[in-house]
């Protein structure tokens, strides 16, 4: 199994925002341009992911000349299972009906994989965005260098 690039980008964006350890008023606002420069991603992809994260109420977006986006919740409140399930979509991992698989009447694969999927998400429930931020100062430095903004 491999996560979609869309999900990967969403997790990167959340980590980037969490590296600033600020939520709410007075927090540093990130921009699409900044994210694209940091991770070498296309603005089109980042726009879509940021919009989705906003709809999920994980980030807050602000319009205008000095606009941008920031975390809408504390990193401890953002479950990795929730983020990944939402960005991946909760589709079946095994599709037996389309096209129809002749083995379906006697096959155990669908049930086994479905159980594995649930165990995967149960495992991720133990972790939040904060779990990814153990080395936040180092991440912040890495992101700054990646953007080309050496201090």
From TrEMBL:
<dbReference type="GO" id="GO:0005829">
    <property type="term" value="C:cytosol"/>
</dbReference>
<dbReference type="GO" id="GO:0003700">
    <property type="term" value="F:DNA-binding transcription factor activity"/>
</dbReference>
<dbReference type="InterPro" id="IPR000944">
    <property type="entry name" value="Tscrpt_reg_Rrf2"/>
</dbReference>
<dbReference type="InterPro" id="IPR036390">
    <property type="entry name" value="WH_DNA-bd_sf"/>
</dbReference>
<dbReference type="GO" id="GO:0003677">
    <property type="term" value="F:DNA binding"/>
</dbReference>
<dbReference type="InterPro" id="IPR036388">
    <property type="entry name" value="WH-like_DNA-bd_sf"/>
</dbReference>
<keyword id="KW-0238">DNA-binding</keyword>
<dbReference type="Pfam" id="PF02082">
    <property type="entry name" value="Rrf2"/>
</dbReference>
<protein>
    <submittedName>
        <fullName>BadM/Rrf2 family transcriptional regulator</fullName>
    </submittedName>
</protein>
């Amino acid at each position: 199994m491999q996560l979609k690039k869309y999900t990967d980008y969403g997790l990167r964006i959340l980590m980037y925002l969490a590296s600033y350890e600020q939520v709410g008023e007075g927090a540093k606002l990130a921009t699409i341009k900044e994210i694209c420069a940091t991770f070498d991603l296309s603005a089109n992809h980042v726009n879509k992911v940021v919009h989705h994260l906003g709809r999920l109420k994980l980030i807050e977006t602000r319009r205008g000349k000095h606009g941008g986006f920031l975390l809408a919740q504390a990193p401890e409140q953002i479950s990795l299972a929730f983020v990944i399930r939402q960005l991946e979509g909760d589709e079946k991992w095994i599709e037996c009906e389309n096209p129809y698989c002749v083995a379906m009447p006697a096959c155990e694969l669908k049930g086994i994989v479905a159980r594995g999927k649930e165990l995967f998400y149960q495992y991720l429930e133990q972790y939040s965005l904060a779990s990814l931020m153990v080395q936040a100062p180092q991440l912040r430095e890495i992101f700054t260098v990646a953007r080309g903004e050496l201090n």
